[in-house]
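In this supplementary section we document a worked example of the pipeline. Step one takes a protein sequence of length 474 as its only input; no multiple sequence alignment statistics are reported here. Step two produces a three-dimensional model, which step three serialises into structure tokens for compact storage. The input and output of this example are shown verbatim.
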Amino acid sequence: MGGIFINYRRSEQHRGTVRAVRDRLAEHFGADQVFLDVESISPGRRYPDELRKRLADAEVLLAVIHEGWAAERDEDGVRRLFREDDWVRMEIETALRTGKAVIPVVLAGAEPPSADELPENLSEFALKNAHFLSSLASDMWVPGREALVALLERDHVAPLWEIYQPSKPDRSTVSGCWLTVRTILAAVVVTGLAWAVAGDPRSEPWLAPVSIGAMSFGLLLVFTLCVPLRGVFNRFEHWLHGVSERTYLLLTSGPLIVLFLLGLAIAVRLWTGEVEPGAVLFAVVFAFVLFWMAMRIVQADAREREQWNRWPTKLPRRVPRRLLRRTVARLEERVAAWTSRLTREQRGKASVELEEIEHALYRLRGETERSRLRWLTEDMPGPFSVYAVWIAANTVLALAWPAGAVTVLGLAATLTSPLVALATVETLYRHQRWLRRVVYAEIEPRRAALAATVEELSSPARTKPTQPSTGRAH
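The serialised model returned by step three reads:
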């Protein structure tokens, strides 16, 4: 389990101070990470067993030193530290023997003990650098307490959480050489088949024009989506992936509800016999589509809940914009719900997620400067190969056809197909650069605002704790 073990002597004189220290440590590290016997041992538990167990689990022992700590005696006049059954002595001795970190926490009015005031088994304790705390009413109480929190966090208490690694690995990029070899091999196979088809006397010379027309229609569609309508789609995606978790899940399940109601209406009409028999086939296909959409929505819901519960998530090396937007939206929703001082876990997780977002933005900005060849090999290896093979097939189909219009078809295949392909690739290339610049300009201010809010909620700052003094030369 790890955490912090507070070693102290029970006394009404300093009980409030010890409890205040424990409450602040529990607030920051979590109640399970801080052990104080009165607060942490449940009724019915065997006291010695619980003490030994939690001491064995702890990473650091805080030995609270109050005024007269070393000289305190029992009812027989024996100094308590020199008794073999003294729990304060046993706990410190065990921590020193097992190599745990031991920090003397010296309260107001007290002094760190010297080696002469301690039994031989505790002589090492006199060499430990102490941390001093002022009285609760002092203006220096909060700075000293926060310095102790920072010291424990920085050097002694490990976090209980780890960054979540997504199960889906990063997609590896395709090297330029391998992409070229793969494209050439595919082009050889496809052009061979096209030559065989074109040489068949039973063939009609319509396939090449239709193919070129399909490629041209694809260019028109790409141009429409990436130029006049790109702002509309980007705003819609920005809105969809910028809403809260609950709204996002409701939106993704909305189409399923509409399709379900439509399918129910069709089923009712089938049952009453008011639908033509041919509609039965449509109903079957519709049922399969409905099932497929339901599965996709269930999977999306599971992923969203997993990413909400298991955070912070390590983002892939190349982050899709929808994932980056959802990550920022989830963090904004979390931070908006935080109104009090952050715990160590909250601040640590938010800092890690902000760092992941910052790295993703850095990579996103670098992607806007990629060359066309690098963009093709990293983002579009499949479409690039398909287009190259498609151009080769169009050329062969036109030139090898035994028709009188070979010259026209050959010219069309030789000029139209490459020009359409180049225009499509250039449109997509410029679109992805524009889109990445827009997403960067959108996310960076939100990241900066989140970082400022997390910093504000983390105050008082504990990144540079005060240096505790030893109080005396040992």
